[in-house]
Write a structure and sequence with these properties.
This is NAD-dependent epimerase/dehydratase domain-containing protein. With 338 residues, the protein is α/β, with parallel strands linked by helices. The protein contains 15 helices and 14 strands. It has two domains: 200 residues, Rossmann fold (3-Layer(aba) Sandwich), CATH 3.40.50.720; 107 residues, no CATH class. The strands form four sheets. It has a seven-stranded parallel beta sheet, with helices on both faces.
Length: 338
Amino acid sequence: MATQALETGRTALVLGVTGGIGGEVARQLIGAGWRVRALQRGTNAATATHAGHGIEQVQGDAMDREAVMRAAQGCEVIVHAVNPPGYKRWAELVLPMIDNTIAAAQGQGATVVLPGTVYNFGPEALPLVGEDAPQQPRTRKGAIRVALERRLETAAAHGVRSIIVRAGDFFGPRVGNSWLAQGFVKPGQPVSTIREPGVPGVGHAWAYVPDAARAIVELIEMRAELAPFARFHLAGHWDADGTQMAAAICRVAQRHGLHTQRKPFMWPLIYAVAPFATTPRELLEMRYLWREALQLDNARLVATLGSEPHTPLDMAVEATLAGLGCLGDGVGALAGAL
């Protein structure tokens, strides 16, 4: 595949390659014959792991426009998968970073690819949400995501093409910053207690990262055929009654000889510490997604690709728990890094 990448000269810049979705898109692009470049502020264990997969590293910060533009030289695609960690400083960082990506894409004639979220939508769009549903978010982060996408829509009128793929809560073997990894289970420890943040009977949308990345790569390959501002929804794994993810974790754990119990998530503790810490405050702001059903309609994606990539739930959960080091078979790669 590396030879194919050299022959075609297809190069993609990935911002956020050490994140779950950015890293997986990078790996799958390489598998599809692309040369992948990553802009990173420094080196760490996760960076070294990605570098081992043939990713060219360029030092720089997504907040530095000149650095982004230099890294984008010769790129046909820029994957914008970078987010401030732990919900912190979104208002300061999210929009300047997308502005830098847009400037770089305009300079190179590159397509911007954005892994999107469900934060954009408020109650008037629920429960089954299409790509063109009204975007009237009830949270600050939702308003920022709407503004971010509007930047891309405006840029389309100036020749900058973009692809947005919105999905539910990400989970996967290399995804450490997720509800499954940080709420349902504890990385590096065999599964014993599963904490459930939702309300029984209320559905919840999940997205297995390898499936989401595959859909993104397939859309990238079709980018010339898509609208200049193309938006898609990934249905992912729809937990229709809000209990199926926890049930899948129990089934997988049992197959590995582990005994589990299910308990409610510790929302009272989150309320208690929220006045003193950013992340708990932000978790409370997004709690509505565990109290109301928001299901993504993937009809447009299926019409475009023919089908949505879909790994069976138990298989996806098993791979995720193994990566987190939660199956009692030794510490997983991600759990070790965490």
